[in-house]
Design a protein that fits this description.
3 domains, 445 residues, FAD/NAD(P)-binding domain, alpha/beta, binds nicotinamide-adenine-dinucleotide, Enolase-like, domain 1, 24% strand, 7-stranded mixed beta sheet
């Protein structure tokens, strides 16, 4: 059978594209070597959030005195947390399978290899069978980057994020190499469960891509709470569970390495002429690659490695392929992102530094989250911060950067303002419910 679309990779990009194209009545085959849901659902966003939620419950129970609550003999069961995480993941994977099934999409479990391609036909082999399709969408995602540090490979003391998520026992202590998003979320998990944590970051700050003022609030809190954060520190070598960084020796039960991810191009050797940039597939505004009839979405494009970006890219690519909304583009300037630390960080749009690079004259407004009554009621001892970057000429909202719980839940309101190009006067007309922390977005106007 010849398919209209073959998709390799069943993560947020692949399953979104498969569902959308199948729904439009097209014959779609989706190849996935593991479980559908990809990194995000199986070994990324969802399992980490499940474990982080368990850790937060324990942490809150043991730090509730400030709210007039004392709980004694609070304990946690890591195996039970892991079991719950597995059930959450299993249910979500089953849900995706069901949705694909409902749309009569063919799901093939196995490693797909592109055998050949012409402008009219792509041939793929999987499990010894040959599949043909008019169009190909590459959604093969990314894999953990292993830096060339002596002693890192085949070292049982060294974990990547997948090892950490699958561990049946907690480490007694941990060094986290890389203070990026993955590093700081795991630092939060282990710290809240009472494990000594050291974070090693090569650059002068953790979370280097985020607003520095917001990051300072987090770094100060975590340092005060006992997390060791070593910035401008380079790991020279690892020997068992001993690590040498900036000439200093550090030991821990486990060493978690989270220094970024790289596009996964396995199975694509036949696409010799596809344009790459720094090992990722180059795409246009509609996710078309340099090869006609080949699209790419998600981490493999190296654009912004976030599940919601992958899903949006898939929507735009299918829209273009099927000519449903052929000229719809992705608003990369209005992609929200969240770091699930405690407090959470959420942001959308450009930072002050990016505005300066783009030579945009800005007005920057700042407000502590304590301007929100709900924040005051529920975040004892925290101040939080909301920063808004405004175009000084036309007063449009260009970026919002926040720290304070639960900013992940209302950053989408800020995304909407940035996406629609709202001016502060237009955004001011939006009514926020009282009392909610989201009102900070109104207060700052
Ligand atoms: P990252 O790029 O966010 O952070 C990697 C960090 O490691 C950087 O701060 C970098 O300076 C540092 N680093 C690099 N080499 C180093 C070295 N040798 N020694 C010490 N530090 C070093 O990458 P990540 O944290 O691995 O995450 C991978 C991707 O997954 C990112 O794109 C991230 O956005 C995504 N992700 C998103 C979420 C979320 O949305 N909440 C959660 C997890 C991961």
């Amino acid at each position: 059978m010849k398919y209209f679309l073959a998709i390799i990779g069943g993560g947020p990009a692949g399953y979104t594209a498969a569902e959308k194209a199948s729904k439009a009545g097209k014959d779609v085959v989706l190849f996935e070597q593991n479980a559908v849901g990809g990194t995000c659902l199986n070994v990324g966003c969802i399992p980490t959030k499940s474990l982080l939620y368990g850790a937060k419950q324990y942490y809150n129970a043991t730090h509730a005195q400030k709210y007039g609550v004392t709980a004694e003999n609070v304990t946690f069961d890591f195996a039970a947390m892991q079991k719950r995480k597995t059930i959450v993941v299993r249910k979500l994977v089953a849900g995706i399978k069901q949705r694909l099934n409902n749309e009569h999409c063919t799901l093939v479990t196995g490693f797909a290899n592109v055998e050949s391609r012409t402008d009219k036909l792509v041939t793929i082999s999987c499990n010894g069978e040959i599949y043909e399709a008019e169009n190909l969408m590459i959604c093969t995602g990314s894999t953990n980057f292993v830096p060339p540090i002596p002693g890192i490979k085949d070292n049982p003391a060294v974990w990547d994020s997948t090892d950490a998520l699958n561990a049946t026992e907690l480490p007694k202590s941990i060094i986290i190499v890389g203070g990026g998003v993955i590093g700081m979320e795991f630092a939060t998990l282990y710290h809240e469960l009472g494990i000594p944590v050291t974070v090693i970051e090569a650059l002068p700050t953790i979370l280097p891509n985020l607003d520095p003022e917001v990051v300072t609030v987090l770094a100060d809190k975590y340092k005060k709470a006992g997390i060791t954060i070593l910035t401008e520190t380079r790991v020279e070598s690892i020997n068992g569970n001993e690590l040498t960084a900036n000439g200093q020796k550090l030991t821990a039960d486990k060493i978690l390495v989270s220094v970024g991810r790289r596009a996964n191009l396995n199975g694509l050797d036949a696409l010799k002429d596809i344009e790459l940039n720094k090992g990722a597939i180059v795409i246009d505004d509609f996710c078309k690659t340099s090869l006609p009839n080949v699209y790419a979405c998600g981490d493999v494009t190296g654009k912004i490695m976030l599940a919601h970006v992958a899903a949006r890219q898939a929507e735009v690519a299918v829209g273009r392929m099927l000519k449903i909304i052929p000229l719809q583009r992705i608003a990369y300037n209005a992609i929200p992102s969240v770091v699930y630390t405690n407090p959470e960080i959420a942001s959308v749009g450009i930072t002050e530094a990016q505005a300066a690079e783009l030579q945009i004259e800005t007005e920057v407004r700042r407000l502590p989250m304590t301007f929100s009554g709900r924040f005051m009621a529920e975040n004892e001892g925290e101040t939080g911060l909301c920063k808004m970057i405004i175009d000084a000429k036309n007063h449009s909202v260009l970026g919002v950067h926040m720290i304070g719980n639960p900013c992940s839940e209302f950053v989408s309101a800020a995304s909407f303002a940035v996406r629609m190009g709202y001016t502060t006067a237009e955004f001011e007309q939006v009514v926020f419910p009282h009392p909610t922390v989201s009102e900070i977005l109104h207060e700052i106007l």
